[in-house]
Structure to design on (924 residues):
């Protein structure tokens, strides 16, 4: 099957105050593939996820572009049809596990609601599936955990619960928006292992949004480098990392602290490079994008 | 909350009540106007006045009076009412149930109306509906309950004879009630004809109390619903494709109820306090009405008893609302 | 994060009067509320020239005249007359004086007392806070309306006693909210920074924390004025008010109750004025709060 799980074509998104958020971004993710989306904070990576899900901030406008999913353009779809995809075919793994679970409802309620209302299961099937999923994400004693409230779980457990809920509907695409950023480093590893295991088991494509190049190197087969809402480099991870083309990518790789080399000074991204990239972006606004 | 915190809360109650009792006692002794004089009427001799004074214990010094009152209090005796010639406890207990019924119904009305307003305003946030809801809230927040009572009488009784504007029950009706809780009793014994009349009489007074309170509930709930909407779990629910109405009722509302219940509980005492004037205006035979009588006749023992009764109610209500907040918020339990 | 380096910090220290910060870009609520409040104040001040008749003038020949647009109405008594022939409009205008005076004075007194107590309790914490909290709890256990009536019965007639009664009953509203806010502020970095720089606690409280709380105080103050206006009307309704038959909106409403069947205008017009005034105080307070919120937190 050569049709991509999701294909974003020339996406241009503008904020309410006129600033461009995404300047003609194109990304394609093959079915079952883990695609890394890297960039600094504010580069627009989270925004891509939000555009797909339809949760852009108030007043943000999608100027042009298509998002092809399952042969249809998400931008052209009716609101209800799109809502129908959410939770089932497209799922989100959020950044902050604490507040992403409703604090006054037990895990059991939240998971069963998802199974019954969005995935059409009956109560007993839903419960069985919920416990099965919790087991798959390596949660110890799932029958006991399921009756707890979110604040009674540890951060890593919560994130794993969210991962379980994301995979519940065997989605074609998962958007993982910096899923480990809010976790301790020791916990990160467990969560990522779980994520990879679930992904391989269910065969979902994953759009893995992060600012950590190391994670991308480990998990993602293909990757995109984003800066100021533009794609600077794209391709198989192994190639991009071993032989980067764009000077920004090179600088990004060079700035990653390494323990396997003799110690040297940290290499920040050169000011001149950053500045010229911003100027390029504004030029793009001028000639291609913004219709202010 | 943990058992320890609860015990600490309960331990404060007698302290508070003692403080209230003390202040009330002293305060009332300083009011100008001699109750004995008022009671005895003109033309009473000095000897009569003196003997009356003695029988009510008003000839002793203030600290002594207080100690005596306290001692009697522990025996369940609040003294004798000067204007009613009966035990204060008896009078108070007799007039409490009508007020309790009134407050209960007003509270139910307020929660329903206020809750509905808040939910409507939140679901249609940003549109004209929300603007209207805000307007209704602002309007009723600005109308004091006694004024609303008068205007309701004007509208529903004088101009359009819809509902009775005074009393608790049709005076022509001869019914034997066992308790003072007329409404609940007629409900449980199935006397629906009587119940109809009772409800008609309680409609306007409870509306007068309920509507301003409802607007307060609506304001607070709408604000906390707005906060809940901005949270991550709401965004997550949207990303799962749930319908907006479900998100409002199942995700936002249970969370929003927590601060709303807390703030409402604090304000509940104002609802109780409003009964004083509203009952007066409607001639409703409750404790508020009694209080006004007591003030004008300077009936000190009765007034003390009433204020103490109010204080007990207030404290009970505060405690109750704290417990409700704990019930709503799992994070406050032994976790 | 507070900038605690010496020079900048001192230059940017908050002034005691923090108001002119937001360039009078008032929002709709504050504008509407504020203008109506000013309107009422103006009417009160200019009552002598605006009122068609002296408010105490009885004219029994013209008792219970309906408003001018109804049958039997008379344009010289625009809103009708009461049962003693006194012009309603004039009485409303003069009544506005009492209402506004008492509203302003009692709100200010309650504000000062409540805010200071709350500020000290919240900022210092510890034993002081415990005592104040117990006091507030006890205070709150009293039925407010009843307490006000009893107090003003005690203190006799007159503006002072009404102001005191209202302030005594309602200062706890300020105290609670300001106390909570002071507790929050006391945890902030700028307080710690001032402490390190050697300021005494009292000085920090007055010179640093108070100006930051000032916008909140102002908002509460405007709302309190509305509440005070209501309590004043309650008091005069219950018969405990300023002396004589000087018209107050509350006593007019009380009188209106007696003529509810044959003279609805005695009740309705003062009521409408009272509601509108309280509404505008509330709008003003709400508008101010919206202006402050982004700055505040």
């Amino acid at each position: 099957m050569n049709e991509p799980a999701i294909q974003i074509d020339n996406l241009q998104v503008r904020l309410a105050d006129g600033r461009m958020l995404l300047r003609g971004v194109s990304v394609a993710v093959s079915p079952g593939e883990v695609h890394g989306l890297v960039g600094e904070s504010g580069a627009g990576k989270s925004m891509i996820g939000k555009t797909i899900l339809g949760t852009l901030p108030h007043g943000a406008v999608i100027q042009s572009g298509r998002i092809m999913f399952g042969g249809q353009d998400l931008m052209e779809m009716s609101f209800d049809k799109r809502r129908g995809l959410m939770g089932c075919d497209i799922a989100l793994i959020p950044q902050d596990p604490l507040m992403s679970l409703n604090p006054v409802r037990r895990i059991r309620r939240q998971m069963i609601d998802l199974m019954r209302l969005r995935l059409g299961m009956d109560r007993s099937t839903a419960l069985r599936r919920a416990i099965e999923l919790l087991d798959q994400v390596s949660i110890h004693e799932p029958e006991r955990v399921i009756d707890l409230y979110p604040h009674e779980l540890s951060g890593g457990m919560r994130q794993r619960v969210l991962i379980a809920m994301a995979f519940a509907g065997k989605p074609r695409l998962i958007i993982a928006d910096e899923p480990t950023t809010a976790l301790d480093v020791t916990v990160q590893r467990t969560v990522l292992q779980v994520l990879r295991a679930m992904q391989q088991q269910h065969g979902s494509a994953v759009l893995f949004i992060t600012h950590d190049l190391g994670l991308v190197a480990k998990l993602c087969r293909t990757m995109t480098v984003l800066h100021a809402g533009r794609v600077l480099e794209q391709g198989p991870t192994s190639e991009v990392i071993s032989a980067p083309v764009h000077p920004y990518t090179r600088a990004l790789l060079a700035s990653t602290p390494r323990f396997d080399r003799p110690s040297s000074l940290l290499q920040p991204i050169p000011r001149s490079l950053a500045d010229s990239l911003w100027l390029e972006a504004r030029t793009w606004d001028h000639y291609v994008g913004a219709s202010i | 909350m943990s058992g320890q915190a609860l015990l600490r809360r309960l331990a404060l109650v007698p302290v508070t009540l003692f403080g209230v009792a003390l202040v009330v006692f002293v305060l009332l002794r300083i009011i100008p106007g001699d109750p004995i004089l008022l009671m005895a009427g003109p033309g009473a001799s000095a000897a009569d006045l003196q003997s009356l004074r003695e029988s009510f214990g008003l000839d002793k010094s203030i600290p002594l009076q207080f100690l005596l009152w306290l001692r009697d209090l522990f025996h369940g005796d609040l003294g004798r009412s000067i204007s009613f010639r009966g035990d204060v406890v008896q009078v108070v207990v007799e007039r409490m149930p009508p007020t309790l019924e009134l407050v209960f119904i007003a509270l139910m009305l307020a929660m329903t109306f206020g809750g509905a307003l808040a939910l409507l305003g939140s679901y249609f946030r940003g549109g004209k509906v929300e603007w209207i809801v805000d307007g209704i809230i602002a309007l009723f927040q600005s109308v004091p309950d006694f004024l609303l009572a008068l205007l309701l009488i004007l509208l529903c009784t004088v101009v359009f004879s819809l509902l009775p504007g005074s009393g608790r029950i049709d005076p022509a009706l001869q019914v034997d009630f066992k308790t003072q809780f007329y409404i609940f009793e007629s409900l449980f014994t199935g006397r629906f004809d009587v119940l109809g009349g009772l409800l008609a009489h309680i409609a306007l007074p409870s509306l007068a109390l309920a509507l301003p309170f409802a607007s307060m509930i609506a304001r607070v709930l709408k604000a906390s619903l707005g906060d809940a909407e901005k949270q991550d779990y709401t965004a997550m629910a949207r990303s799962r494709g749930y319908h907006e109405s479900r998100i409002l009722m199942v995700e936002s509302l249970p969370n929003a109820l927590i601060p709303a219940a807390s703030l409402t509980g604090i304000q509940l005492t104002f609802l109780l306090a409003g009964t004083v004037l509203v009952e007066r205006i409607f001639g409703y035979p409750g404790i508020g009405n009694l209080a006004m009588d007591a003030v004008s006749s300077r009936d000190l023992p009765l007034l003390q008893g009433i204020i103490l009764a109010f204080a007990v109610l207030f404290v009970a209500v505060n405690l109750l609302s704290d417990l409700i907040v704990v019930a709503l918020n799992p994070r406050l339990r032994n976790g | 994060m507070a900038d605690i380096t010496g020079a900048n910090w001192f230059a940017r220290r908050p002034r005691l009067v923090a108001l002119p910060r937001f360039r009078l870009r008032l929002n709709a609520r504050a504008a509407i509320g504020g203008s109506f409040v000013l309107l009422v104040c103006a009417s009160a001040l200019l009552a002598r020239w605006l009122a068609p008749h002296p408010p105490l003038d009885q004219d029994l020949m013209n008792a219970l005249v309906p408003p001018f647009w109804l049958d039997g109405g008379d344009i010289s008594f625009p809103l009708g007359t009461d049962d003693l022939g006194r012009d309603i409009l004039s009485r409303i205008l003069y009544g506005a004086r009492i209402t506004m005076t008492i509203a302003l004075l009692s709100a200010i007194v309650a504000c000062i007392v409540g805010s200071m107590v709350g500020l000290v309790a919240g900022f210092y914490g510890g034993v002081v806070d415990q005592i104040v909290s117990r006091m507030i709890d006890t205070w709150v256990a009293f039925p407010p309306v009843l307490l006000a009536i009893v107090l003003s019965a005690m203190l006799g007639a007159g503006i002072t006693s009404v102001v005191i009664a209202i302030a005594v009953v309602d200062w706890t509203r300020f105290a609670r909210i300001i106390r909570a806010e002071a507790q929050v502020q006391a945890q902030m970095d700028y307080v710690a920074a001032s402490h390190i720089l050697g300021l005494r606690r009292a000085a920090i409280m007055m010179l640093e924390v108070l100006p930051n709380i000032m916008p909140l105080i102002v908002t509460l103050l405007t709302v309190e004025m509305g509440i005070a206006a209501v309590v004043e009307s309650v008091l005069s309704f219950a018969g405990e008010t300023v002396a004589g038959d000087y018209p107050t909106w509350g006593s007019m409403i009380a009188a209106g109750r007696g003529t509810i069947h044959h003279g609805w205008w005695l009740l309705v017009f003062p009521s409408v004025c009272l509601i509108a005034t309280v509404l505008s105080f509330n709008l003003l307070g709400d508008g101010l709060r919206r202006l402050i919120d982004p700055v505040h937190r």
